[in-house]
Each structure stands twice: as structure tokens, then as C-alpha cells.
Fold these 4 entries.
Entry 1:
Amino acid sequence: MLHLSAAVDQPSAYDAGSYVELARLAERGGLDFVTLGDTFARPGPDALAVLSRVAPATTRVGLVPTVTTTHTEPFHVQAAVATLDWVSRGRAGWRIEVSATEGEARLFGRRHAAPAETLWHEAGEVADVAARLWDSWEDDAEIRDVSTGRFVDRDKLHHVDFEGTGFSVKGPSTVPRPPQGHPVRVVDATEGPARRTAARYADVALVRAASPAQAGAVRDQLRADAKDFGRDPDTLRVLASLLVDLGDGEHAAEPGHGGGGPRQTAQGPLYRGGPVDLAELVTAWHTDGIIDGFHLTPAEPRRDLERLVNGTVALLQHRGLFRTFYPGSTLREHLGLARPANQYAVTGGTS
């Protein structure tokens, strides 16, 4: 199964309507999910809040905001992501990111900047405790019995009692278990420090690769590392991340998929050409078993996403390589991932 996703970032855009428009366009094309970036390093709207606004205006496409684990409270992070899953009826994801600069650290004044290895280790701990907190309510913990006045079965709420390197969390969560059990966790695994966290905790790993050989090598490593962590490698989706500039419209790109691309740039691998040649690139990389799919960032959001959906995706659908409708309603279903069992209900954890 080919998986396709797209970024809906729009520099300096603060009106919700523009994000709703792009998400609906992605949904029309059957894309698995859209992402919206966020960082403490520059001004911009809160990605999770924006996609919470987009959620009721869409019905199927997955919604994946970036939520930084550095300088934020893990308990609040997991509750916010769980809330997005409820608001979207099971379509939430969470792109895990860290904050590495001293300037960002000074915004909070709690600690100095730390090395990437330390930050990604912490991010892994946050991903771990988030899953525990999502499981701290069993699926049938809510009673809502008006006659007895009982809202919840306390025997089905669990303390997680998590001790991390720099934080501790007792739990349980204040939000009932999300519709997906665990909202989908996404990590950009291009850089080494993030790769270990992705292999251990991510459902989707993004890889910025300028060649199929590079993408395939990282995918193989991620799958091997996931197996070493006791995971089934088939539960990890690895998507190649590309910037796409479809300004050439329907004109064929130069030989080599987009004027010699993807080629490496300061912003990452860039494809520049037409939608048809982009479909050829996607087909070649995917049918050779190199990658599970693509995460595409439009150079010009409205123009390029429209050409992606109406051109590239339509051609892939015509070839039978990509879905023409959503077979399910949750992001996990789009990605072919099972809903996780509740670790406390299965193991009989203490409450």
C-alpha cells in the first residue's frame, strides 16, 4: 500500500480558513494525513490549535501537528494530543520534535540548551509516558450511570508512576483513552540522534533522502533497529520527505525526475518539475520496495498541493497505485496500523 501525505504550512498565515482549504484539498485526494509544523524559534500559530479547528471541517484526512517535547510538560502534551484525537474522531497524529537552541531555552528560562542526543532521549521518554497515559484509562472505564452518580470505574484507571531522566508523572490522564488508543506518533528520522527514538517509538518515520539508495538504507536501518527493540518492523511506516515545486505545471521535467532531482538543498531534497514526472518518481521508488510512501512539502502551498492532488495523485490512482477512497475512518486505518491493546488491561497493571 502506497502512503502519501503533505505539509500544509503557510508562512505568516493566521486565518483558519486557509488551513481548512488545504486540508480539504488533501482529503479530496485521499492523502493519509497532513502535517503542520511548529517551533519556538519563530513566530507562528500553534499547530495543534490550528488543526483542532480544522478537525470539524474535515472528515477523513489525518491531522498531524508538530508538538515539541523540550521545555513542555509531558502530561499536558499527551492530553492535548489525545483531545485532538477525540475532536477529530480518531484522526490525530503527533509529530515529535525537540528544541535545541539557547534562544528557545531563554523563552522559558527553566534550563539551558542541551545536546541533540540528550533532547531526543528525553523525547523518547515523553513518547513512552504519553502511551502509558493514553492507556491509563481502559476503554470501558467510563460508566456515566446517572442513577448511581458514578461517572467512571476507578478500578479501570491506572497510575503510570513514570520516572524519566528529567521528569516524573504519576497519572492517570485527565482525558479518557483516545479513539485510536494511541494517536499516531511521527518522527523525522533523517538525523542520527532522532533515529533511535523513531525506531523505538514512532509509527511513521520521515526520511529526507535525495536518492532511492539513501532512502532504502535508512529504511533498512530503522526496521532493523525496531526489531532490536522488540517491535514488529512491519508496524513502522517509513516515508521519504521531499520538497516539491510543481511550478512547471503539466510540462514534463528534464530527464532524471525533475531537472536532475531530487537534489539536495539547504531545506532538504527538492523535486522541481511537473506532476507527471513526480508520479513517475513515486512509482519507481515505491514499486521497488524502497520506501512505504512520501511526505511532500509544497514550495507554494495552494498551487502545488492542487497540482499534486489533481495531477500526481490522479495519475497514481488511475494506475491503481493509490486509493480512490478511504476504506476506514481513522488515521491508523489509513496507515494499515492496528489499534494498540491497552497495556494495563492486558497485563493487569495496578491502579
Entry 2:
Amino acid sequence: MLLLERRPVDSALMRWTSPVLALVLTVITGFVLFLAMGKDPVEGLTFFFITPVSDLIGLAELGLKMAPLLLCAAGLTVCYRAKLWNIGAEGHFLMGALGASVVAVQLADVSGFWVMPLVLVAGVIAGMLWAAIAAGLKTHLNCNEILTTIMLNYIALNLLLFAVHGPLKDPYGFGFPQSVMFAESALLPDLISGTRLHLGLAFGLLAAVAVWVLFARSFIGFQLNVVGQDPRAAAFAGFGARRLTWFAFLVGGATAGLAGASEVTGPIGQLVPQVSPGYGYTAIIVVFLGRMHALGIIAASALLALTFIGGEMLQIAMNMPKATTGLFQGLLLFYLLTCDAFIHYRLRLKQPVRQSIPVAASAATQEA
């Protein structure tokens, strides 16, 4: 019989092997799924993982998808290190996109070097204000942040839909739910000429480095770690849990809001209902896959960005459904959580216990 036995000490090897093993299992499962659907698995996996990054344009698109994932994941890392389970990066992202778009539309006829920074700051503030709702509910009413942030995601989505169907709708857009195109002064500059890669990737990389510095070199990062590992010890040391909760949520809202602002001022250039294919939710996988470490979330964001591009490639090349992207992301998260169990537990083979009958009792039974 196989049993899960608690390890006396968590396995450091499994902590870093688990993401690699989860990826391998995801690829193997994908191979089987392609076979089950009557598709060539080698061709399918090649289109999903290799073809999208086989040239400069593909690499630029990978960076384009990485940018919002990195920004959202950086903010979530701050929350999760403090054991604040913020699921609201998607809502912060959408509100950041909406806030930036409101300012960009108002300045559609204005030019100047200050327009783009102002639009980005508006997105950051909108994301922070949206995160502040969950922070206030957590600190003042003791509401569960998982539930509040999930519900706020849907409210944010409906506010964005209201805006593009109402106040921000382009009057000359032939009835399509979209805002007017932003002015050139409100758009982010390209990093590589001839591609769609923009300055948002630099924002994401800087955010990842900033998170590393926060936890490796700052006292407030130390406080967040202590609060996450032992709240009673943090309280005894005088670390204000309420203040740290606000700090973590506001950082998460700021980075995700900047991601939303960068998306509408980058490749899209206007506000549309499909501004996010689920970046905020996917960033949760990035955080855990990257082990809440700067280099880890950079690598994980590249991998998850590849799933978005690979899914689009499969739609075009092999007529696969759009849900393939979500399927691979879900498999990766499932296997990651399963493999993570072996950080704390190990499998043991338990031999069945045989009940022996005492000799005296056996003899008495025979005499009777």
C-alpha cells in the first residue's frame, strides 16, 4: 500500500525540480491528447512550443505577451509572500486599462512628451484604487481576500464593457464596442523596429528586479516574509499586519494597473473588450511556477507567454480550438500543484500488518 508520509524537512530538490517535472508531464499529456484528437502529436507540439519563437518576429511577440504577465506576477509575488491570496490581478489589469483609456481619450487631440506618462500614471492609480477596495475589506471587515478579489474581477470587467459600449465608444466606429484610437503621443515606443514589442517589457523586467530587491535588501520585505511565515511572531515583533496588507495590495494593484495601461497604449492603441485574454489569472500560475523569485517569474512568464502564442498558432495551422491555450495552462498548474505535494510529503510502501495468534490461545482453542 502506498502512503503519503510527511517529510521531517521539506525537500529543497523537489522545490526546484517540481516545475520542470510539471512541464514534462504537461508535454507528455499534450502528446496523448493530440493522438486522441487524431492530430500528429510531434507536429502539434512543434507548432505549440517551437514554431512561434523560430524568428525575430516570434521572439518579439513572446516579449509582448511576457510584459503584462511579468507586471501582474511581480505584484502578486509581494502579496503571496505575505500569504495574502490576491486573485484580483485581472480586475486590477482591466481597471488600469480603463483608467488609462479615459485619460488617453480626453487627450486624443493633445501632443506632448507628458501625455504618455500621464496616461500610464492614470492606469497605475486606477489599479491601486481597485486593489484598495479589497485591502479595506480585508483589514477593516476581515473579509476573505480570495472571494472579494474574484468578485471584483467581474465587476471590473462589466465596468469596462459599460465604458466601451457607452461613454468611451467611438462615435465613428461603425457600432463596434471600442474607444477612439489614441494619439501618437499617448503610445509606448517600440523596442525593436518593425515589431510590436514595446516598452512594457522593460517595465516588467524592472518590476521583477524591484521585487527581488524588496525582499532581499529591504526591511519592509523582511516584514512581509515574517508576516507570511508566522503572523504571531510578526505581531510580537511589532510588525503592523494592517499596514503591510495595504502595502502588498497597493503594489499588486499598481503593477497590474500599469500592465493594463501598457497594453492599451502599446499594441492595441485603444480600449477594446478583449484587452485581456486572461493575463491576470495566468499570472497566478507564473508566480507559483517561478517560485516567487525574480528569475523564476521571468522564465515562467516566458513559458506562459509561449502558451498564448502557441495556442494561436495551433488555431491557424491545425484548426485547433482556442481552448487549447487554457487546456495547456490548466494542465501545467494541475501538475505543478501535484508535484509540489512532494516538497512536503514522500511516498512510502506500507507492508500489511499480519495479526499473529498467540501459541497459548491457539492451544486452548484446539483443546476446546
Entry 3:
Amino acid sequence: MKNRVKKEIDFSVYTETYLGKVGELTLKGSNIKTFEKQLVNNLRTALETADAKVKVLTGRLYVHCTKESCGVVEFALDHLLGITGWAKVQNVEKTMEAITEAVKVEGLKAKSAGAKTFKIDARREDKSFPLNSYEICIQAAGVLFDDGTMDVDVKHPDCVINVEVRDKAYVYCAQKKTGRGLPVGVSGKGLLLLSGGIDSPVAGYRMMRRGMRVECVYFHSYPYTSEEAQKKVQDLAKTIAMYGMETHLNVVPFTEVQMKIKQKAPEEYSTLMLRLCMMKVANMIAKHIGSDAIITGESLGQVASQTSQNLAVTESFAELPLYRPLIGLDKEEIVDTALEIGTYATSILPYEDCCVLFSPKHPVLRADVEESRKLYEAMEIDDLVAKSFEEREIIRYSIRDEIASMKENSTL
């Protein structure tokens, strides 16, 4: 077997460096390498078409790239789950002369942005470095304080300049927070019932943050729901795919199913019967794609179909574990996350889905499982449900393809 030769990074080409801070992964035990490998593989896949090199070492994720690739690298890091944040850093030699010069550059940038006070935060991972963390702070701070660039304030500084002494010295100031959580791919696969509303995209994102790959299903009732409504859901699927690496959106034609529900079911049960039909299709798709669970955006008591009793009826039709990550959240908390991940503006576009358009004036609030099952069976609707499953359209979205498109169109 041939020995693999480790290729050194050519820093004359890969002149720019980014550092990502690994958060929850550091709490893992003997399986931490599995999580780190998934994190690196995710970022490498996203940046497959970019000029960038990725590695992870002692709680830090490193990306070295060309200047032209900075935009796509920052886009990928903004959407990467499994890190708490990232910063563009100066990558310098491990000497105090190089470190203090880099600190001065960061201080002048902070001052030009309006900062008047600063502090130095130093970490010495390389214990062979002659100065300890405190001594690094003292010498680095003196460069900015002695020449009057800024005043020191260790309690409430306008900016914090970080110095990390590792394989090299890394100096940075501005940091950007990200989604935290676990790398997508370490927690199996889930199927998300995706509507055009605010809640379901947030539910999918929250499961992605726990490391789950997420596929999507959307129920479309043309012409009662417009093409704009479907486009809205496609945009939502594309947005959350940027966090989940990729997703497949299953667009299920549901017009015939809804019309039969309207004909056969008591009006007050129509929304609940629709949810049961959706769950039947979700079971089929989930088994087809090897999903471990079904995910919904339900929040307890938010609407009539989400009372405790009605949720129990819906769950009784699920053939896989049913995850409801929003179950205890109020609307304000859900909206905050939607704003954070960029789905809110799309979700509030005035194109309503089939659940809204066919809602009864006085829906049942406390349905019984057995009674609901009898009403479902009386509709004799399983053949139409199976037909809608067979006629679904599948659309794929991935962050890799999005970055490739951005590069091609020079949008980053």
C-alpha cells in the first residue's frame, strides 16, 4: 500500500484565511472525530467548485482560499451548521513581531469603524511558544495603547482583538455568529411537510441544526392554489437547503384528494381529514427515501388543527416517529428564527396554500382518534392518495449548485 503524501497548502495562492469556531462538537467524547469529519465533508462539498482548502484542528475549522473565492466561502460559512461563528483572520508567523503588527492592523480597522476602546484576548495552544496568554495580551495591547490608537477597556470594550497561537498565529477582530448545532448528516434523515407558511421552514431548519438531513413534501391543489404558491414553496425549500446541504422537494398533486374530502367529509372535519391524507402520503414518501422520521411545523394551540386532541389524531396516522420541533414555541419565537434564516419575507407573500383555502368556518377542535379514523375510512380515498404519491414531481436544491451558479454569474 502506497503511503499518502500530505500536500502542504500553497499560501502564495491561498492567501486568505477563515477560522470557524466549533461549539457543541467539543462536548463529544470518543466519537468527536465522526462529527468533525462530517463538518469538514459538508464544507468541502459546499465549496467543491471554489478555490478553497478545508481542515479542522483542535476545536477550530480552517478555510484557506484565493482572494476571488472569499465571497462564496463567506456564504458557505454563514450557512454551515456545526460552528458557532467565523472570522476572517490574519495568518502570520509565530513571532511577537508578526503578531503585534497584525494586531495593529486589526486595531486601525476597528478604529476606522468607530471603536474607541479595545481589549486583547489571547489563547496559546502551542505551549512551546515562549510567552503565555497573559504576556501575549500585555505586549499586543501595548502596540495600540502606547501610540494612542485606542484605550484599553477589559470589561466593556468596543472591540476584542483575538490572538490564537496554534500551528501559526491567527489574529482577528470582527466575528460573525452562525447557527451552531451539529453538522448535518450525523442524525439520520427526516421528511418535512413544507407549506408556504412561516412555521414549517423553521421546523426543518431546527432539525437540520440537530444534524438531520431533511427532504420536503409540498401538497399542491392547482388551480385552487396558484403557480405562485408553488414557486413560493420552492423558494423556501431552496433557502433551507443552503443550511441542510441539499434537499429534494416532492411536489404532490392534491386537487382530486381535496375535492373528494369536500364531497365526503363533514365540513368541520375537512381540515383534519386533509391532514390525515397528507400523513398517508408522507408515510409513503418517507419509506421510499429511507427517512427515519416525519417532521411538521405544528405548534400546540396555534390553530384549530393543532389542539392536543387533533394533534393526537394526526399522529395516530404516522407510521414513523413524528417530530414537532416547534411544539412549545410561540409565534414570536418562530418569526425570530424565520427572520434569522431568511425565510420570513418569502413566507408572508400573499399566495395561500391548500390548507388555508379549504378551511371550514367552524373546524372541529377536539376530535376523537377512533371517530376520525372511521370518517377517514368512509371517504374511501386511499386510491386517490396513492395516485397523488405516484404522480409527485421531485425538485432538487443544493448549496453546492447554488455556489457554482453564483460563481458563474459573478454574484459573489
Entry 4:
Amino acid sequence: MAKLINLKIFKRFSESSSFGGILLIVCVIISLLIANTSFATGFQNFLNTEIGFSTTGIHLDYSILTWINDGLMAVFFLLVGLEIKREIVEGELSSIKHATLPVLAAIGGVIVPAIIYTLFNEGTATANGWGIPMATDIAFALGILSLLGSRVPTGLKIFLAALAIVDDLMAIIVIAIFYSTELHLNYLAFAGAMFALQIAFNRFGFKNIWFYILPGMVMWYFIHHSGIHATIAGVLTALTLPTTEDDVESPLEKLEHALSNPVNYIIMPIFAIANTNITFQEGMVNGLTSNLGLGIVLGLFLGKPIGIFLMSWLSVKLKVAELPEETTWKHIAGLGLLGGIGFTMSIFIALLSFSDATLQQEAKFAILIASVLSGIVGYTLLSSYNKKKKQAA
């Protein structure tokens, strides 16, 4: 029964992410149109508008862009954290047999792009951006894969979802460790107290999700002022939500259901519109051949598929894992390319990596190009392979 619940949750998540991926594409186009018309200045001024309030002891007065990147994205990371915990407890990551392949493939898909980026940027002003090509955008990747429908095996979709979830987990760890600013221990202590309170509620069997959400909101404030990126509060909150392996909907599953549509249909599109506003300028294409551009484009477009495929191949050859049912190595190659769609998380890390607006624009343009290339080539490879199989049959 637990397996049925897990498959239903995955089906809902997959379908939601599929539509969310298509919606994200539309929002990217809208954002690019705005950034390259007379609306660009007005839109940027809107994003820079400060809203909120401040008192002697509380500061919550931030720009709309900050509220999007630090506030709404914390909700996105909350959903990611819920998905990670569920997969570990009862999903594709709940057993060594099922978890080994996506975990090792994700590790390969993180290490190789980071190495490629570092080879181009070591010792330069852009060296700090090594985390940019590490991430896979699960919404876009599943959205592209869903366009193939029954032409790809179901096991491949589950494998991609599990891989992307592990990928997100590693990106979260990288952000927490390497992209945090100067730490303020007093705020960290207050945040730790809120986290301890959530754990206590879990231990005492509290089922109402507000016992976790409200301390999580307070923890967000403390973490935001601590020097660690505030989105980590979403992940920590997710880890404290109770869940079970039986057929009764747990608080974790209940919250995951409630957040799935708002995150995929509202939060991610808002993030895409606010952060993809790239104003095309003369020489921007030439920037793709700079150290920064090459590190990102080659890291995502080549590093991701090489890392994913190589680690998958080694895992199977060493007999520590096995391919999903009905999946071939050509499927894995195509999936690896879809893993190069970094978009949302890559842009997010780019914003953390560089304070210079010009570098942010160049990085976002390189991410956009690499993601488009990865999506088109990955889709084409998987689609053509299916046609050859039909012809052979």
C-alpha cells in the first residue's frame, strides 16, 4: 500500500513538473521580451522596489527581487526538502539497490561540470562560480522528458526524478557551505533553537503542520541574518516533518501535496520572469567564448552528460547497480543531456556567486544557451532512438 501511495505522489509530481516546465519556458520568453523592450527599465525599477517593515529589533524591509529570491525560493526549497525526505523514507532512495544508480550518477553529474568550469576559470575573477553548472532543473528536465510520453520507459522518468532530487540535495549542501557570507553566530544560535523546537515537535508526535511551518518562518528570519542563505530554512523545516511508510497520508505528504502546484505554477514562473531578464547587448555572444561562458556552457552541455553516463556505466559494470527496466545506454545518454538543463538552480547559484551585474548577465546568458542546447539535443536523441527502435521492430 505504501508503494501505491509513493507512485501516486510521484505521478502527481511528475505531471505537475511537466506542465510547470512548459510554463517556465513561456515565462522565460516573456522575461526576455520585457528585458529587450521599452518596459525593461520600468520592470527593473519594480523589482528594486522595497516592501516590508523595519523596527528597532526587526528588519524585514527588502526589494521585491530579494523577497522572490530569498523568500519564495525558501518555499521552493521546502518542497525540494520534502521530496528528498520522502524518497529516502519510502521512495527510490529508500533502499541501497534503488538508490545506488541515481546517487552515483548525480555525483558524477556534479563533479565533472565543476571540474570543467574550474579548468577554465581557476585563478580568475569568476573562479567562485564553479557551482553554477552543477545543478539540474528538475521542472524543465521532466517537462522535456514528458513531451516524449510513452516513447521513453517509465523507469527512465523515475530515474531522472531521483537523480535530480539527489542533485538538488548536493546543490543545497554546496550553497550552505560555499556560498554563505560572513557568519553571525548569535543568529545561527536562534535559528538552531527553532530547528530544535521542530525536532521536539516531531519526537512528541505533533501532526499539525503549523507546528513546523511557524517555527520555520522564524528560523528563516534568523538564517537570513546569519550569513547562510535563507533558503536553507526551507530544507531544514522539511527534514523535521513527520512521515510514515503506511497508507495513511502523513503531514509531510499532506504539505507536499499542498505546495506542489503553487511552487510549479506560481513560484517558479515568478522566479523565471524576475531572473531571466537578460538584456541582449553587443558582444554578449562573444562572451560565450570567455572563461566564464565556456565554463558554464561546456560544464552543463558536456560535463553533465559525461558525468552522469560515466558514473552510471561504472556502477553497472562494477555490479553495484543496475539500469532501470527497459532502459538502454542510449536512454542514459539522452537523460544525461537533459541533466544539462541547469536553468533555475544554476541561475540561483550564479546570483550568489557574483555581485557584479555584468557577470550575472553573462552567466545567465550562458546558462540559457547551455540549457536550450541540452534540452534540444537530449530530446532529439531520445526521440530519434525511439523511431529507430520502431523501424527495427
